[in-house]
Design goal:
Number of strands of chain A: 15
Helix content of chain A: 40-55%
Largest sheet of chain A: 6 strands, parallel
Cofactor (chains A, B): Zn(2+)
Pfam families (chains A, B): Histidinol_dh
Catalytic activity (chains A, B): L-histidinol + 2 NAD(+) + H2O = L-histidine + 2 NADH + 3 H(+)
Active site (chains A, B): 325 (proton acceptor), 326 (proton acceptor)
CATH topology of the largest domain in chain A: Rossmann fold
Function (chains A, B): Catalyzes the sequential NAD-dependent oxidations of L-histidinol to L-histidinaldehyde and then to L-histidine.
Oligomer: homodimer
Radius of gyration of chain A: 25 Å
Structural class of chain A: alpha/beta
């Protein structure tokens, strides 16, 4: 789709891009509710039944768990170049996330009140790793390493193994990341097992990780029973690029999103109509050369857009409306445009920062808010695996300072026992 | 309920306390889904209809908004003692939450990669304030002030006004906290209006605030469309107290939770059976003296418990199982026991720190995780009104360092356009 800000009808066309519904529908929600209820009520029998039906293997035969020794063997069996790449990714992800660790705080204020906050990891985290077409070891590292950095004691992973087939690269990544348990289950039934527990699978406290529409909806439905990272929908990229870029590079960037799934969205803003033409041509030329051509073609045709703006400055309010998961700014001075961005999951600055670098080895998390949720949500972080306990301590003296106001407010709110709990200690006549 | 760790059957009885289902049932979920769908599809007409039906007033007559001038007048009309109490509360809540503001970070690592994270407030936040029996100005301060500290530009409040009646204390608090818009609506329809927008009410990005079972379920259902603080369920307190406490004080503390609602849970752990008896007697003696006696009696009878443990140390693993919203440790050395706590929303240390102090003026937030959610969730904070954008910038040189590993991983994951976006820039022959 080619849009021009100056043309009649632009506002409505852009609105359609912003509002594009690429999310789970009501049927998915109903199916997922049925699966979750079955897992909650019937435990591992339900998990086994859904796995037989949906993944085509019998857990009693294939085994429920993938053993640590198998993961280690997969890691050791990797070809050296790939193992080094995984090692580099893990090390850089770890370093970036270590800077996210929150500090505890404690102070005594002028009223003599001791105040503070203390962070602790959750006891157990469940990591969903997609199987089949989207079997991504990088996802595993991006989920497992922040949990490890947080200090989570029990790291549980689920990964579907359709037809019983495992993915050596995923198992290798599990070994590298230090995952404690690996279960060969997937889909909504895996999310249910993690949230409610299911026989041999003990429940966890937080469930994270990307998945298809069923997995995303299942996470939404168990939210509150456990913590989750964020409802994940289809991916998107916005590229802001001037005419000084190589159109082939920008076309590859747009396609690196499109090849993920037919529902992903790739949008280019440029201030040069001729460059827009060249990128469109490069996209069409590159697609047939990709092993992922069918998916990329469908995604680009359905959800791709090139938008010509008078100046790149004028693109930025539109970018904020889109609140994209990924934003690439390919100009000589990307910082000037980045300063104007309020809503984006992760931003890739300059001509030599293709989004793919962030998917693997840069360090920041690639689990990011999709579907305009960067308006209010953040990428996965160490904080998603920790929680904060506030605390306070008063002395008799400081209670004298704060007590009367508390009594006044409690009485005004009609809560006499609240008032009494303070008044008794101060021997107030209430 | 009186339990003793040493008695037969304790494990099962305690398990029942941990698992007590005090949450919304399926009927509530269905009703809420119906209301939310109507508000999403029909906008303000649906909001007006539900308000007429459930709150008993016609918004066309009472007006949709409560004007800023009315809020200011309510504040100025407060009796001086109460106004001073509200002022003290607001100032102390602000000071505490200002310490939560996250810092942006940026660095260049040894590979020459620029990395960092940037925090920004959400554009608009919606604050739910309960009406009717639970019309709490303190809730408003606890929700509005963190949003203001975060830098949220548009602060929207909804408060039901049953029969059209407003609550002067709530309006005064709205003025004090700097709320920008006040709408006289409540229930699931208010949550729907905030999440989806409804005619004159523009949608927000985050919805926070406590409410009844319908409000809590509505927040759960719109999660993902907007951010929410946490699914809020009935409140609970756990008090850990030795025999050196005044049983009347501890009884008042337990009742300060029980008087909120018939489904709240109050649990005392003590190492002295005689003290347990005295607290039980004090509870029974105090209840009839409360204006909230009916609610407190029902809550205590249904969900109250006194548990005798051999030593208070032995109570702490049980406290972690309960992961209570509020934990009061009333001993000479509360820190020793606090050091052993992993899961609690907020902790009140020492004999002179009744939980009620934290409800109003201490400073930490009183919107806290309930229903065992302190296992994975935190109290409301400035972070709930902000989001983090990660960023990275590579040079041609640093892309040479990270590029080959990215190409290797992308190819291993079957994503050729990812690999190409890097390879083209490095002029690699792929």
């Amino acid at each position: 789709m080619r849009l021009d800000v100056g043309e009649a009808g632009f506002a409505a066309q852009f609105e359609a891009l912003v509002d594009a519904r690429r999310e789970a529908d009501a049927d998915v929600a109903r199916d997922v509710a049925t699966i979750l209820r079955a897992v909650r009520d019937e435990g591992e029998a339900a998990v086994a039944a859904f796995t037989r039906k949906l993944d085509g293997h019998d857990l009693a035969e294939t085994g429920w768990r993938i053993e640590p020794a198998d993961c280690r063997a997969a890691y050791e069996g990797l070809e050296p170049e790939l193992r080094a790449a995984l090692d580099l990714a893990a090390a850089r992800i770890r370093t970036y996330h270590e800077k996210q660790k929150p500090e505890d705080s404690e102070w005594v204020d002028e009223a003599g009140v001791r105040l503070g906050a203390r962070w602790r990891p959750v006891d157990a985290a469940g990591l969903y790793v997609p199987g089949g077409r989207a079997a991504y070891p990088s996802s595993l590292l991006m989920n497992a390493i922040p949990a490890k950095v947080a200090g989570v004691g029990r790291l549980v992973m689920t990964v579907p193994t359709p037809g019983g087939q495992t993915n050596a690269l995923v198992l290798a990544a599990a070994h590298l990341a230090g995952v404690d348990e690996v279960w060969r289950i997937g889909g909504a039934q895996a999310i249910g097992a993690l949230a409610y527990g299911a026989g041999r699978i003990a429940r966890v406290d937080v469930v994270t990780g990307p998945g298809n529409a069923w997995v995303a909806e299942a996470k939404r439905q168990v939210y509150g029973v456990v913590g989750i990272d964020m409802v994940a929908g289809p991916s998107e990229i916005v590229v802001v690029a001037d005419a000084k870029n190589d159109p082939e590079w920008i076309a590859a960037d747009l396609l690196s999103q499109a090849e993920h799934d037919t529902v992903t969205q790739s949008i280019l803003f440029t201030d040069d109509a001729g460059f827009a033409d060249k990128v469109a041509e490069a996209v069409d030329r590159q697609i047939p050369e990709l092993a992922t051509a069918t998916v990329a073609r469908a995604a680009w045709d359905a959800n791709g857009a090139i938008i010509v703006v008078p100046t790149l400055d004028e693109a930025m309010p539109l970018v904020d409306r889109l609140a994209p998961e990924h934003l690439q700014i390919a100009t000589d001075d990307p910082q000037a445009l980045f300063d104007r961005v309020r809503h984006a999951g992760s931003v890739f600055l300059g001509r030599y920062t293709p989004e793919a670098i962030g998917d693997y080895v840069a360090g920041p998390n690639h689990v990011l808010p999709t579907g305009r949720r960067a308006r209010f949500a953040s990428g996965l972080s160490v904080l998603d695996f920790m929680k904060r306990t506030s605390f306070l301590g008063l002395t008799e003296e400081s209670l004298k300072v704060l007590g009367p106001a508390t009594v006044a407010l409690a009485e005004a709110e009609g809560l006499p026992a609240h008032a009494r709990s303070v008044a008794l200690r101060l021997r107030l006549n209430r």
